[in-house]
Amino acid sequence: MAMGQSEKSALRLTNVSKSYGRVRALENLSFRVAEGRFFVLFGPSSVGKTTTLRTIAGLIAPERGHVEIFGKDWTHEPIAGRGVSMVFQSFALYPHLTVYDNLAYPLIEEKRPREEIDRRVKETATMLRLDTKINRKPNTLSGGEQQRVALGRSLIRRPRILLLDEPLTNLDAKLRHDMRAELKRLHRQFGLTIVYATPDELEALSMGEEIAVMRDGGVVQIGTPDELFEAPCDLYVASKIGSPHMNMIKGKLATDNAALESAIGPLPFVKKLQAAEAGEAAVVGIRPSDVRFAGKGEQGLKANIAMLEPLGDVTIVSVETGGETLRMVLPESAASGLQPGQQAAVILDPSKFYIFRASSGRTMA
């Protein structure tokens, strides 16, 4: 679901760069977010996700580039008036104030009438299922409840864009799951534009309508979860999207560019590569779900079963062949009789190969 021209742009960053001393936090960062979209910035820590959010919020001024919000250039404008609200990883609640007063605080600062404050606090508390906790102090609440108060304090200002910086990192797995559902519900209910930063692949794929995969202060690829899974533009994206991660087999191209010569033997391609040098170093990627055991009468790669990881209804099976370890995903029933050390023959589906140039990591096919 790439953004059509008819969709209104809520946010556009163009060639934004920012350094701290010698450290480049952002490097020619560009992306556009359609109004009402749940947009995820995804990548490991220190790729520039937080700096990006702080730049959008106006807490940081970039050295180069532009930040447009709903068509207006806000690059060097003050924070106020942007219609942007940010929720940080640490909930940053006022410990001495009740939930009611924590929620009311932004409206008191805006000098809203008392009746309006009371109405909006109660509406927000109900919506976030905090209405029974409204007179409690933050230290008597659970982590999930504290997170909802922090969220409520941002939502009560009715922002046009909500920025969320790894908001679920401090919660346990069950709460994270519940809060993901809660955020998606709020997104639908309000039609908010959300920019959500996370290093968590499951979070990115389950929540993001569109995901920007970040590396070294820039965006490597933007797409829907399906687009990033089906057509990663380079090795980095391929290794980050999909669980368990893609198998990567190093080698060099055969003289006819129709196979990879590798430690596990020649891996023939479905069709010849065009823009490639014979003998060039390359990497073949194949997802664990596209590796299987050979059937009767099939010639497969000789392998040894190295490890079994049961995950409920599926089992991840690691096999060793030619010094490489390949992971495969089997239904629990198909893996039940397997033991480490057993010999096996495996088949890799060549129609499911991803082929990358070793030098740049960019996709070749």
UniProtKB/TrEMBL annotation:
Keywords: ATP-binding, Cell membrane, Membrane, Nucleotide-binding, Translocase, Transport. One of its GO terms (cellular component) is ATP-binding cassette (ABC) transporter complex, substrate-binding subunit-containing. It is a peripheral membrane protein. InterPro entries: AAA+_ATPase, ABC_transporter-like_ATP-bd, ABC_transporter-like_CS, ABC_transpr_MalK/UgpC-like, Mo/tungstate-bd_C_term_dom, NA-bd_OB-fold, P-loop_NTPase, Transp-assoc_OB_typ2. Pfam families: ABC_tran (PF00005), TOBE_2 (PF08402). SUPFAM superfamilies: MOP-like, P-loop containing nucleoside triphosphate hydrolases. One of its GO terms (molecular function) is ATP binding. The keyword Nucleotide-binding applies. SMART domains: AAA. Belongs to the ABC transporter superfamily. Involved in beta-(1-->2)glucan export. Transmembrane domains (TMD) form a pore in the inner membrane and the ATP-binding domain (NBD) is responsible for energy generation. This is Sugar ABC transporter ATP-binding protein. It comes from Bradyrhizobium retamae.
